[in-house]
Description:
This protein is 33% helix and 27% strand. The chain is an alpha/beta fold. The strands form 4 sheets. Strands 6, 7, 8, 15, 16, 17, 18, 19 and 20 form a 9-stranded mixed beta sheet that branches. The chain has a 6-stranded mixed beta sheet with strand order 10-3-2-14-22-21, with helices on both faces. A 4-stranded mixed beta sheet has the order 1-13-12-11, with no helix packed on it. Strand 21 (362-366) and strand 22 form a beta hairpin. The longest helix has 22 residues, at 297-318. 49% of the residues are buried.
Amino acid sequence: MNSDRDGAIVIGGGIVGLATALAMAERGHPPIVLEAEHRLALHQTGHNSGVIHSGLYYKPGSSKARMCRAGLEAMYRFCAEENIPHRRCGKMVVAVRPEELPRLADLEERGRANGVAVRRLTPEEIQEREPEVLGLAGLWVEETGVVNYSQVSERMARRLAKLGGEVRVNHRVLAIRREKSAQIVETTGGLLRGSLLINCAGLQCDRVARLAAVDPGIRIVPFRGEYYVLRAERASLVRGLIYPVPDPAMPFLGVHFTRGIDDVVEAGPNAVLALKREGYSWKDVSLTDIADMAAFPGFWRMMRRQWRTGISEVQRSLSRRRFLESLQSLVPALTDADIERGGSGVRAQAVGADGRLIDDFHIQIVPGMVNVLNAPSPAATASLAIGREISERILAMRTAA
């Protein structure tokens, strides 16, 4: 049986797991990271749009608001130290209908409460920045940026190794049992013993918690976000990052445009229920995952609340015309010939037993285990702050014990 050096095992090699492992190592407690797949950052981390968020959207005082603000500057520092290509390009949020103006004002107020430098834009100022956008009013957020988070994750793993930590790929967790003060983890790569498990398994985090006989109190419901990309010859239609005014009742930001660090302009995503936790297309179906959702009462309560939105999102997924119409609300000049199918990602959305979509980060601490149970966007931006907070809470508990 293999044992890690310090008793800490991190389950999940996405950016949150790696940032947490790195934070532990920087405090003198380098852990082992177990990743189920053949390489790191294969799922949520490797399938997002690469935005470094400012903290504009989140409820003041929430973990998302606090950690996003701290993580923003930490991410920029990390990228500079590791010479990772990144760009602090700013973003624009645009109201295109009169009924969106009050929500835009609320968003501006929320951003300022979170410490975000927000500037109101007139229609003329909108067009100065994005000539193809016709908006009634907008917000400009200077701090927002773009980066490749897969590359960030690779550098985190490299720095972790220098500090004595270890990453093991192809180590899918199969079973967890407790023996006195030790956690025994059975993986596809063998057995490991540790005194502490840190569960950052993303799309599988609730299942990992249940493997350890811990009730997570939530269920992960996967939502697929699908993207189009602007053809290279028409990418000049979008200069930077253009967002709609979000629906405050939903944890999704709406279909938007992102010029990435590679200068490819992505358009999306929508948000449709995925039929597999790692389901990146309609062809990806898991009967196990469907049965898992169907057995959870909170899933049906969520569906009763959100069925109208769900139908709309499915229609947009299946209809290129509907997707294009959503994009044209921000960039009217866009035509069908300007776009082509892009990639997709799957969001691990925690749902409560009451059917509520958990909006904030959710971290559960029980004896011998930390479970990161809801870490959607802006978790990549906030990852270094999340890792630091988890490590500080763990070390404080150890000191108190």
